């Protein structure tokens, strides 16, 4: 466990030294500022584009519009940014041979995968907390309407799916030879999730539902219970991805 602690610390320090953490902070901070601001300015934008008469037919923005922007930006851009930033987290190190010295000096191979996973989870948690907090503060300021009562029930599935995505990224990067192969594999699995969601009976078991039903969770927190199977399956898949990553990495030639 001591080796795991120091390797995770090394990964976090490297992420900071290479400015990856700073880039993520800036991107997710912008998301947090954009969400309530876009919701607030939408009527003015519509007025400028289609005219004041038609703009009056559009209802006044509420906190729901701000949180709609939040989940839209995270699912359409935020998670993609994570996949792009971390796509070569294992394959790059193997191709450069940077792990040879550590492994030959006694570092267990499972520690590499576990340490990288912990580092990515911490970075994802920080990013989600940052953009969530900023959106929350400005939403309360601009739209004090109490129409979004279940904030944490809605954001928890997003966090869980993000961790599943990182597990998939780690696995893809472990078996791939480069970033592009890893991204293709990750994208392929996500597409399978999306296609499976076309069947209504599958949505309660499909991990992708954790990032497509958030507005329902936000308004009716009890609905989240219906998606517990998707949460359990996401957890099992995450563990499976990490175990497979360790098994594959153990056989990799460094």
From TrEMBL:
<feature type="transmembrane region" description="Helical">
    <location>
        <begin position="113"/>
        <end position="138"/>
    </location>
</feature>
<feature type="transmembrane region" description="Helical">
    <location>
        <begin position="227"/>
        <end position="249"/>
    </location>
</feature>
<feature type="transmembrane region" description="Helical">
    <location>
        <begin position="150"/>
        <end position="171"/>
    </location>
</feature>
<feature type="transmembrane region" description="Helical">
    <location>
        <begin position="183"/>
        <end position="199"/>
    </location>
</feature>
<dbReference type="Pfam" id="PF12679">
    <property type="entry name" value="ABC2_membrane_2"/>
</dbReference>
<dbReference type="GO" id="GO:0005886">
    <property type="term" value="C:plasma membrane"/>
</dbReference>
<keyword id="KW-0812">Transmembrane</keyword>
<feature type="transmembrane region" description="Helical">
    <location>
        <begin position="21"/>
        <end position="39"/>
    </location>
</feature>
<keyword id="KW-0472">Membrane</keyword>
<dbReference type="GO" id="GO:0140359">
    <property type="term" value="F:ABC-type transporter activity"/>
</dbReference>
<keyword id="KW-1133">Transmembrane helix</keyword>
<feature type="transmembrane region" description="Helical">
    <location>
        <begin position="74"/>
        <end position="92"/>
    </location>
</feature>
<protein>
    <recommendedName>
        <fullName>ABC transporter permease</fullName>
    </recommendedName>
</protein>
